[in-house]
Specification:
heterodimer; A: 375 residues; five-stranded mixed beta sheet; B: 519 residues; nine-stranded mixed beta sheet
Chain lengths: 375, 519
């Protein structure tokens, strides 16, 4: 059971705040992670039907011996938009992992505060009567199990549970998270290309060591900034200021202002791959080229990298500062590309093998955003 | 010969076309009962042209009437909805995200039942037929006249929606049924929204279609009539009566297609300048470039295919105001009061039209009434009008290359100067009735939107299958064999899953087979 001290630190998340988190998380999704709209509607419905608020708990307020479980949607956003959201099997995923490890969860943690998986644990936590941790394993969106700060820091996704709405349930122990990822994709196919995953069981002590803190609050503040930016004189500047004010360790670089002059898309082993070309508004001068693979992964100017994964490339509408995910990017949009430095956990040699440019099949060698910008 | 009619919120335009030649056109105010305005406009063009009615082979009508009715919440029926998706989807109930008053207006009879398919069309859950029957009995008890049915992945497999329709009709023989797969594409919530929107409009559409039928009969026109859909194709009156939602957003498509036709230019920007707003879009191969983003109509999220349009608050009636911070044009407008309240018409309000007359490039009203306007104000305003259009044009361009700009709509007289980034400005004759011309030249079309496996079929095989299905749909919609062509192919890979699953949206269109169409 949770310690009284932990409960004292709970902060209630109301539905307006959840809506702002959805906007901020779309920005942090760096083009990917799926649209949080469905999860937001599910959160609204849960509240409207008399469900409780979700409580946010700071990572450092977790008891060392608390049991933490991660919960996320896993599969194709296109399928999520048909199957929408169903709470009982989300709760079932959490309860099944609890039963399997023989310990009740004291808090849920998001895998990624970026895209729709930022909201899934918030709704799940409210439904399970558990707090949700203000932190996650990415501070952006990545597509695979081994790409979390948990996994990189030695906390395995296994044992993990996958469920669908029929309560078909799979419990998996994998040798490592890459293998776990491969198995989970195969299970997800069998479940109809969308499932709920509960994974990375860990103690409070481990969570404090491996999770990235304060990321839900960051998404909330970015959502607030984007909401306010629309009415301000220079929306991009206010967004940049808000990022700097709320996350001192994030370098922000305004990479490019222009408009989308070309988009190319294809599919490759389940990834939506493609690229976007941006030209300056007056048509003259250098063009920016952004490669994406679900997320925006590399931005180059005349072939010279300006920002590379795992650093975040966020494309926003130049007039409203609203984020534009990769499925929505289209000809003619006036956009600003922002570079946000990733959490330092992803910059080690070991981590770069998992989330660096080469892990996504690109030839660029990773250099940190600040270094590329200084050249 | 073909009669084209556009029923807008303000004006009803009619044109008579003989092949590619415009014989006559007329613009009249829209009447509260839309068929009166259609009657008068058609009567006028027939009188002007002296063409006997038996030479009319087809009447094509574009209208914003149903969109406006939905947005204004006028004449909406209470809807019973059956969603076939359990155990999936229960966390996001039907009408989630709707404005509360609108959700209330269409009822609260939303029933979820077991059933649905997987992404590849295999059964996910068996249809709970008893639950559908019980729902229908409840709807009947409430006296509902219209039912919408949605099902998990019904665009891929519509068998369960059809079976549920049979069950509902068995319980409610008089009921009107909308199946979501007939009005929407992938995305359960958006498709279901479209089905509910359609279901609540069916009484209005029956009334409007029969009044148009009556008006045509009074005019002794025996040719079939069609309504425009949002993709620039036509549907028969019978189909339109059942699917009014398919007329949503057909206006911009008609005006852009009309602009292409009148100018003979198939790749260009189009600016439709009206009384209050300017709609700018991009033509490619004679069809508007479409928007990929979700569109809110009356606050309800849909995924209708709409032309990618940028709307500017610039029109003939836009107010020109001077303040300490400078001169502003629009977005406030006199709208239809232009003819009473603008300076050139003896009123007291300075508008964009007055400025164009004062600068001596537009002719309307009495120019002496604006002769005293300060030259500086006029110059500032004229520069401002052109700058607004130029910025809009630049936003909608897809490359830095200069492209032609076609101006249509009554407000096109506001533009007299070169626009940067534009190779030439084309103002076609009859630009004011481009919408009605667009309606008259519309094609019969069909569409397929489904998920295909490139692993199983190969890319070429999947594309061929989709093309074949779209062409068949166009044929079913009344296109003449031999004229059917593929107008749009879109490949959308499903992300985050293996197996090379790709969502294909393919559209086909062909000329109307008029001889076989009957009423």
């Amino acid at each position: 059971m949770s310690h009284p001290r932990m409960e004292d630190s709970f902060r209630k998340l109301d539905i307006d705040q959840v809506a702002r988190i959805a906007v901020g998380a779309t920005l942090l999704g760096a083009g990917g992670g799926g649209d949080p709209y469905i999860s937001l509607l599910a959160a609204r419905q849960f509240r409207a039907q008399g469900g409780g608020h979700a409580n946010l708990v700071k990572l450092h307020d977790l008891d060392d011996d608390a049991q933490v479980i991660c919960v996320a949607g896993f599969g194709a956003p296109t399928v999520e938009k048909e199957r929408l959201f169903e709470l009982p099997h989300v709760v079932h995923a959490v309860r099944t992992l609890e039963a399997h490890i023989g310990r009740k969860a004291d808090a849920l943690i998001p895998a990624e505060v970026g895209g729709s998986n930022s909201l899934v644990p918030i709704v799940a936590a409210a439904a399970c009567g558990l707090p949700v941790i203000d932190g996650d394993g990415m501070r952006r969106a990545f597509p695979e199990l081994q790409m979390t700060s948990f996994s990189i820091n030695g906390i395995s996704a296994s044992p993990f549970v996958m469920t669908d709405e029929h309560l078909n349930t799979v419990i998996c122990h994998s040798r490592d998270d890459r293998k776990g990822e491969a198995i989970a994709r195969a299970v997800c196919m069998g479940m109809g290309l969308f499932s709920i995953l509960s994974a990375y069981p860990m103690t409070g002590r481990d969570a404090k060591r491996v999770a990235i803190p304060d990321t839900i609050t960051l998404a909330l503040e970015l959502g607030r900034a984007i909401e306010g930016a629309r009415t301000g004189a220079s929306p991009i500047d206010s967004l940049v200021e808000s990022i700097r004010a709320n996350a001192a360790d994030i370098d922000v670089v305004r990479l490019f202002d222009g408009k989308v002059v070309d988009v190319w898309r294809s599919t490759e082993r389940g990834f939506a791959i493609g690229w976007v070309d941006l030209a300056p508004l007056d048509g003259a001068g250098h063009r920016a080229h952004i490669e994406f693979r679900n997320e925006y992964l590399a931005l180059t100017l005349d072939g010279v990298p300006q920002a590379l994964t795992p650093d975040l490339i966020c494309v926003v509408d130049s007039e409203t500062a609203e984020p534009i995910p990769t499925p929505d990017i289209r000809y003619g949009q006036r956009v600003t590309a922002l570079g946000l430095s990733c959490h330092p956990v992803f910059r080690t040699e070991h981590a770069l093998k998992v989330v660096g440019p080469e892990a996504f099949g690109m030839k660029h060698a990773y250099r940190p955003l600040a270094e590329l910008a200084a050249r | 010969m073909i009669l084209g009619v556009d029923v807008g919120g303000t004006n009803t335009d009619a044109v008579l076309m003989d092949g590619t030649t415009l014989i006559a056109s007329r613009k009249l105010p829209t009447s509260p009962d839309v068929s009166d305005g259609i009657f008068s406009a058609i009567q006028s063009v027939l009188k002007d042209s002296d063409v006997p009615t038996d030479r009319i082979r087809c009447v094509a009508i574009g209208t914003t009437h149903f969109t406006n009715a939905f947005v204004a919440r006028e004449g909406l029926l209470k809807v019973g909805l059956v969603r076939i998706a359990l155990p999936a989807s229960s966390g996001v109930l039907p009408t989630s995200g709707w404005p509360a008053d609108l959700a209330l207006a269409i009822g609260g009879n939303m029933v979820l039942v077991g059933g649905g398919y997987h992404v590849d069309g295999r059964v996910d859950s068996e249809l709970d037929e008893l639950a559908v029957r019980d729902a229908a009995r409840r709807f009947r008890g409430n006296g509902w006249k219209t039912v919408a049915i949605s099902a998990l992945f019904s665009p891929v497999n519509d068998d369960m929606e059809k079976r549920a329709e049979d069950i509902v009709r068995n319980e409610m023989p008089e009921v009107s049924v909308t199946r979501s797969s007939e009005v929407g594409s992938l995305g359960l919530l958006e498709r279901e929204n479209a089905a509910i929107m359609n279901a609540c409009l069916v009484e209005l559409s029956a009334r409007v279609v029969s009044s148009i039928r009556r008006a045509l009969r009074q005019l002794r026109i025996e040719a079939p009539f069609f309504l425009s859909q949002n993709d620039g194709t036509l549907m028969t009156a019978d189909v339109a009566e059942r699917y009014p939602v398919l007329t949503f957003a057909s206006g911009p498509t008609n005006s852009m297609r009309g602009a292409a036709f009148l100018s003979g230019c198939t790749d260009a920007l189009v600016a439709d300048i009206g009384g209050t707003t300017t709609d700018i879009g991009m033509l490619s191969n004679g069809f508007p470039r479409e928007s990929s983003v979700t569109v809110d109509i009356g606050g309800v999220r849909t995924n209708f295919r709409m032309p990618d349009i940028l709307a500017l608050g610039l029109g003939g009636g836009s107010l020109v105001t001077e303040s300490e911070s400078g001169l502003t044009i629009g977005p406030r407008s006199l709208g239809y009061r232009l003819l009473d309240e603008a300076l050139v018409f003896g009123g007291g309000t300075l508008t964009a039209s007055d400025v164009a007359v004062a600068a001596q490039y537009a002719t309307m009203g009495d120019p002496t009434l604006v002769a005293d306007l300060p030259r500086e104000t006029v110059e500032l305003a004229v520069t401002g009008i052109h700058r607004m259009l130029a910025e809009g044009v630049d936003r909608m361009k897809t490359s830095a290359e200069p492209v032609p700009l076609i101006l249509v709509g009554g407000g096109s007289v506001l533009i007299s100067r070169d626009i940067p980034g534009v190779s030439e400005v084309i103002v076609p004759e009859s630009a004011a009735v481009a919408n009605a011309v667009g309606a008259s030249i519309a094609l019969a079309g069909g569409e397929v939107d489904a998920v295909f496996s490139y692993e199983a079929l190969g890319r070429d095989g999947a594309l061929a299958a989709a093309r074949e299905r779209a062409s068949q749909a166009a044929l079913d919609a009344g296109a003449r064999p031999g004229t059917i062509g593929i107008t749009n192919v879109e490949e959308i890979p499903l992300s985050y899953v293996p197996g090379a699953l790709v969502r294909l949206r393919v559209k086909a269109a062909g000329e109307l087979a008029l001889s076989s169409a009957t009423m």
